[in-house]
């Protein structure tokens, strides 16, 4: 995969992820209305010092327009009509959206969306020179690898994760729509222990395999396909079992960068 | 809930079963996760707060937002809510007196 092609894929995929996020927020308009959880009246104190323009954009009246703009801009980039100025506008929308919910709406997925979008925007703004494309893909690939490495390492250091108990507890949290048969299966100590280690192993394996390709050279095409497919399978299961659909699309948008670095000769 | 008896605690905003289209759009599921993040932020503020801070919790944005969520779910009825971590109750709100039927709600 060539570097410009990998960056183009990152751009289109992150635009698709942002388009879906904007649609979700439109469907959730009641939570930002004057009677919703995140009503502007309660948030005003937090954002007052950012000035009247930001205030108007994030208020109950401005927010729906911002979402429509975000959806239209993301669809334009997805369709291939993206310009550096449009990408900058989209970045501003994504950052404002994350801020409005006191940090992030959905934690890591918003962070990964911002990482990919900012990197693509910076490269396009610079003029997409060969060097900047490589730096952009390097940044995205590094952040993606780091996300797996940190998650895997933290779990490896925790005895509750190594014993499988933490996984069981995690899946019992009320915000995750874990189906009954998964809970029953995980209640068996052997299953939770095995799945706990599978999780730690797969998170660390992706980062180690990426590091190996930097040190020892590219993986053969079949190896690259297997690494990417196992990573995507992991995110698909996360979406299916835990309802983390945003993570699937956000991480998918960073995968072309990983594919590029794994196969680069 | 019967008049004259103490109603039991209700879990606020629990997850719903995942459908195939939720792979693309999962508004309610993501709302529940954002709500949980908000509750965790309030729990963190409760852990960090110093007793000399008289503006807490009334001055806390996280508290105001959690209160909005409880109010919205109560649909105009009076309510009381608590924030619990394991067996430890981190916060117990005063009961509201807005209407006739009390409703009690709790976080996990």
Brief characterization of the structure:
The complex is a heterodimer of chains A (265) and B (108). Chain A is mainly alpha-helical and 265 residues long.
Topology:
The complex is a heterodimer of chains A (265) and B (108).
Chain A lengths: L2 H25 L12 H8 L4 H7 L3 H17 L5 H17 L7 H19 L3 H28 L1 H4 L2 H7 L8 H8 L1 H28 L4 H22 L2 H19 L2
Helix pairs in contact in A: 1-4, 1-6, 1-7, 1-13, 3-4, 4-5, 5-6, 6-7, 6-13, 7-11, 7-13, 9-11, 11-12, 11-13, 12-13
Chain B lengths: L9 E2 L15 H22 L12 H14 L3 E8 L2 E5 L9 E5 L2
Parallel strand pairs in B: 1-4, 2-4
Antiparallel strand pairs in B: 2-3
Account of the protein in words:
The complex is a heterodimer of chains A (265) and B (108). Chain A is an all-alpha fold. Chain A is 79% helix and 0% strand. In chain A, helix 1 runs antiparallel to helix 13 (245-263), helix 4 packs across helix 5 (84-100) and helix 12 (221-242) runs antiparallel to helix 13 (245-263). Chain B is an alpha/beta fold and 108 residues long. Helices cover 33% and strands 19% of the residues of chain B. In chain B, strands 1-4-2-3 form a 4-stranded mixed sheet, covered by helices on one side. In chain B, helix 1 (27-48) crosses helix 2 (61-74). Chain B is globular and about 50 Å long. Classes of the chains: A mainly alpha (265), B alpha/beta (108). Chains A and B meet through helix 1, helix 2, helix 12 and helix 13 of A and helix 1 and helix 2 of B.
Question: Any descriptors?
Answer:
heterodimer, A: 265 residues, mainly alpha, B: alpha/beta, 2 helices
| Contiguous helical run count of chain B | 2
Based on the structure, what is the oligomeric state of the protein chains? Answer: heterodimer
Segments of chain A where pLDDT lies below 50 for 5+ residues?
A: none
Largest sheet: spatial strand order of chain B: 1-4-2-3
Radius of gyration of chain B: 15 Å
Number of strands of chain A: 0
Specify the overall morphology of chain B.
Answer: globular
Mean pLDDT of chain A equals: 89
| Rg over CA atoms of chain A | 20 Å
- List the uncertain runs of chain B: none
Please state the average pLDDT score of chain B: 78
Q: Please give the alpha-carbon distance between the first and last residues of chain B.
A: 20 Å
Percent helix of chain A, as a range, is over 70%
């Amino acid at each position: 995969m060539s570097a410009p092609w990998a960056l183009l894929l990152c751009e289109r995929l992150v635009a698709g992820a942002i388009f879906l996020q904007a649609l979700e927020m439109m469907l959730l308009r009641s939570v930002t209305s004057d009677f919703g959880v995140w009503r502007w009246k309660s948030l005003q104190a937090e954002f007052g010092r950012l000035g009247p323009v930001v205030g108007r954009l994030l208020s109950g009246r401005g927010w729906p327009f911002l979402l429509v703009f975000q959806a239209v801009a993301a669809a334009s980039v997805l369709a291939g009509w993206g310009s550096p100025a449009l990408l900058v506008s989209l970045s501003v929308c994504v950052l404002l959206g994350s801020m409005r919910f006191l940090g992030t709406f959905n934690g890591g997925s918003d962070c990964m969306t911002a990482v990919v979008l900012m990197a693509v925007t910076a490269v396009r703004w610079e003029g997409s020179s060969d060097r900047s494309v490589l730096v952009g893909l390097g940044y995205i690939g590094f952040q993606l690898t780091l996300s797996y490495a940190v998650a895997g390492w933290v779990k490896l250091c925790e005895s509750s994760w190594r014993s499988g108990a933490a996984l069981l507890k995690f899946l019992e949290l009320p915000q995750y729509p874990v189906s009954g048969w998964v809970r029953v299966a995980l209640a068996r100590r052997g299953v939770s222990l095995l799945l706990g280690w599978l999780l730690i192993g797969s998170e660390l394996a992706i980062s180690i395999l990426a590091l190996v390709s930097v040190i020892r050279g590219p993986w053969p095409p079949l190896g690259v396909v297997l690494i990417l497919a196992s990573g995507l399978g992991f995110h698909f299961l996360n979406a299916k079992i835990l309802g983390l659909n945003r993570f699937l699309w956000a991480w998918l948008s960073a995968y072309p960068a990983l594919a590029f670095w794994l196969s680069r000769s | 809930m019967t008049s004259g008896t103490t109603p039991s605690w209700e879990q606020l905003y629990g997850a719903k079963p995942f459908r195939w289209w939720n792979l693309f759009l999962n508004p309610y599921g993501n709302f529940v996760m954002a709500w949980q993040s908000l509750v965790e932020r309030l729990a963190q503020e409760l852990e960090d707060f110093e007793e000399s801070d008289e503006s807490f919790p009334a001055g806390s944005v996280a508290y105001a937002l959690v209160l909005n969520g409880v109010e919205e779910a109560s649909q105009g009825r009076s309510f009381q809510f608590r924030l619990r971590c394991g067996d430890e109750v981190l916060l117990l709100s005063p009961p509201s007196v807005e209407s006739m039927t009390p409703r009690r709600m709790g976080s996990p």
